[in-house]
Every structure is written in structure tokens, then in C-alpha cells.
Amino acid sequence: MRRVLLIAACVLPGLAWAQEDDRDYLTAFLEDTLSDAGRQVVVTGFAGALSSQATIEKLTIADDKGVWITLNGVVLDWSRSALLSGELNVSELSAAEIILDRLPETDASAMPETEASGFSLPELPVSISIDRVAAGVIELGPEVLGQAVTGTLDASVQLVGGEGTAKLGLIRTGDGPKGEITLDASYSNLTHELGLALVAKEDAKGIVVTLLGIPGAPASALTVTGQGPVEDYAADILLATDGAERLKGSVTVRGEEGGYRLLADVAGDLAPLLAPDQLDFFGTDVALNLDAVRSAAGRITLDQFNLATRSLKLSGKAEIAADGLPESVNVTGTLADPDGTPVLLPFQDDTRVGRADFRLKTLPGDADSWSGEVVVEGLDRPDLKVARMTLDGSGRIGRTPAGNSLDGTLGFEAVGIAPTDIGLAEAVGREISGSVRMQLLEGSGALQLSGIQLEGAGLSGTGAAKIEGLEDAFLATGNLAVDATDFARFSRLAGRKL
């Protein structure tokens, strides 16, 4: 939108020699200017470029899959004379209808890399005042938010000398649940003062609660408010459903030596938003405390992190270099029900754990090293029970000419293995232990496993493996040699007598 306004402000006056019947030339100019690789803009019925009211009958934007957004009845009502004094005064920038069938295709690899910098509004050669930005009808296809949505838009924007204000009202209409988003924001480059008041609310069975799968799909409301300089800015957050507070707290961003510090303190009772099988895990009191610093160079220091639910306690500290390589880590966690009963893991298919402890840290004075341990007691799944499992290891995280790397040696042990599959139970036995060497190189997308050693009652094994496509395909290849005192144990699993 801003690009269209700048073109209107800076280019159209330079075409004063053009006549109204030069519509084809101006249309081609707009289409060529607004189109780009992977984006094709088509303008139909463009008129009034040199008058105080320009109109477009239809504007479409397409990607490689076709048209994804259509604007019908576009009107730009503006003051040409004000532009001579350095002002872009727009009484109305509107569309009778905006149809968004789907979100556009994007190529992440083609996106430019950006570096962190202080926020500021653009200092334009003209001041901008748009009294009304509106859409009589906005239609979103089911692919956008999971359900068809119809609504209206009414907004205003002012940008003068590095100070800007914006107001927005987006109202959902039609036969579905009613909803509304209102925004009142302001910012000054001179004082760095930021004002923000955001309210988003929906009736029961609205978009957000449906997408999140909230039980009962209750009415919801989210409020975010804050006022102050961005160097020390605090925003209050309140989430409510059916008129009752569920989550409340504050998030603070504070400038610090060219970078910024992020503080978060949020807590509440999310039980009404959870499925019945998740209540024992999260409980009625969920709290998050965070204290992190991002330096001007991009280094992240996590001074404090605490997450607490009824059955999970996770806390730690960390330092992460600007290139994303962890240099100092100390994280611990415990999974256990206060009553001592097995914990039903959320978002899993009927999986329970009696207790689990987690630890990951780097050694003092040796930033490249790491060590960790996971102990799980009482794993209980419909197809498998294990009395106790341990996984421990150590290694190094480092930089190589080919990229960052992670390597180490892992040791594992499982005791009291009891799969429901009789053939698997006979083949594996009740206990198994071993070790493996792992190596992961950034950008390779493959995990190398070498020196695999397995030991169990009456059997042992050695091998190596490679797991590729960690982000999508997860293709494993390798070999395993097994020595057993009696191969009859594999008969049922193989489906033949051995």
C-alpha cells in the first residue's frame, strides 16, 4: 500500500503533460512498476490520474499459481495542489470489495537478509495524511484462516516529520460468529514514544479458538496496551474467554548498550482452554518468566528462563553467539505429577511417564563442550512399557570451515522392556544398552551415526547409519550386524523358524 502511495505522490505529478486518453500508457506504467518476479499486477479501468479522484475498476495480483487477491472499485480521492507544498493529503483510499482467495506463494530463499536495527518511521520528502482507508467488503477464502470470512475495514494513517499515527477497525460481518479488531497506535522518531492499544475479540466458535482447537470454542478477547519510549517499553497483556481472565502479565523491551533486554512475566489459569486429558499436565496455574538480552552485535544472553505448570518445571540460562551457535548452556527440567501418579503427556497418543529428569549444560571454561542426561521412569504406551530409560552423552559444538557442527558420544540403557508385540519382545529381551557416535553438520541436513554398539541378554550388535532429510523426508540408511547365542529368538519376528 505504501508503495502505491509513493508512486502516486512522486510520479503522477511528473506526468502532467499526459492527457486523460493516455490511460493505456499510465496503466502499463502502474503494472510494470508494481509487478515483480513472482508477482503479476493487472490494472483494469484506470481513470482520472490527473484529477483529484483516480479510480480503478479492478486490480488483481497473481503469483505462479494464479490470482490470489482482487480489488474492485478502487478510489483515490486526493489533493493535487497540496502536493506542491510537500503534502500528500488523501481524503479517501478505498475499495468497494477486496477478495483474498488465499495467501500468496513466497520463496524464502529469495527474501533479503536483514540485520537488527533501531526502529524508526521513514522520513519521506512529503507528509502523508490519509483520512480514510476503507473496504466496503473484505472476503477471505477458507484457505486463509480455515473458514470463509466476510468483513469491513475502516482506518486512517498520518505520517509527518517522523511522527505517525494509525487507527484501524476490522469488523467481521456475515452469517458467522461476529468479531472485531481495533488498533490505535502512534510513534515519534524524536521522542521514541510508542503508544499501542490493540483489542481483538470474537464470539463463540470464532476463528482463533477454532484454529487452536480450544474445547467448546468459547468467546475470546485479547487486549495489548502500552505507552512509553521504546528504549523502556512495557506492554500489558490480557487474554479472556467467556468474560473471565485466563492469562495476564506484562512484556517489557528495554534498550541496553545498543541492544535490548526482553522481560516477560505472564501467568494464569489455562484450564478452561485445555482438553480434559491435558488438565493434569498443565493444571490451573501456568507461569512464564523470561529475562534475555540481545546485544547490538546479535549475541543473545538468556539470564533467566522459568516455565512452570502442574507437572513440568523447566529453567535455565544460556548464551548464544550472533551466528546461532550456543556457547554456554545450563538447562534443567523435571516432569512429575505432584501426587506421584503417572503423567499423561499432552499432544501424544495415550503416553504416560512416571517421572522424567532432563539436564543439558556446557563445561565452565570450555565453551565448545556439552554434556547432558535424560532419565525416564515408567514409560507406558499402548504398544510398549519400559521401566527405566537413560540417555547420557557429551561432545562438542564448534565452528568449521563448512559451517557449525555438533558431535558427541551417546550412551543409552533401557531396563524392563515390555512391548505388546510378542515377536519384538522375544527378539529384544528385557534389557538393552549401548553407545553411538553422532555428528551433525549445519546445512547438510544429515545426521551421521557411527560406532553403534548394542548389548543385551544373549545378543550384541555393531553398525552405522545415516539419517537424511531431517526437516522433511527423514530417510534412514545403514547397516547393523548382530551376534546372538540363539537366533530362534528372532523366529516370530521374521515369520519363519530360525
How does this structure look, described?
- With 498 residues, the chain is mainly β.
- Helices cover 10% and strands 58% of the residues.
- The protein is built from 8 helices and 27 strands.
- The chain starts with a helix and ends with a helix.
- A hairpin with a 2-residue loop joins strand 12 (244-256) and strand 13.
- It has a 25-stranded mixed β-sheet. It has a two-stranded antiparallel ribbon with strand order 18-19.
- The protein has helices at residues 2-10, 23-34, 80-83, 142-145, 207-212, 279-282, 422-428, 491-494, and strands spanning 40-47, 53-63, 66-78, 87-100, 127-140, 149-160, 163-173, 179-188, 193-202, 220-229, 232-241, 244-256, 259-268, 286-294, 300-308, 312-320, 326-335, 343-344, 352-353, 355-363, 366-381, 384-400, 403-419, 431-441, 446-456, 459-468, 475-484.
Helix content: 10-25%
What is the β-strand count?
27
Low-confidence stretches: 1-23, 108-117
* Proportion of residues in extended strands: over 45%
Summary, kept brief:
This protein is mainly beta. The protein has eight helices and 27 strands. The chain has helices spanning about 1-10, 25-35, 80-85, 140-145, 205-210, 280, 420-430, 490-495; strands spanning about 40-45, 55-65, 65-80, 85-100, 125-140, 150-160, 165-175, 180-190, 195-200, 220-230, 230-240, 245-255, 260-270, 285-295, 300-310, 310-320, 325-335, 345, 350-355, 355-365, 365-380, 385-400, 405-420, 430-440, 445-455, 460-470, 475-485.
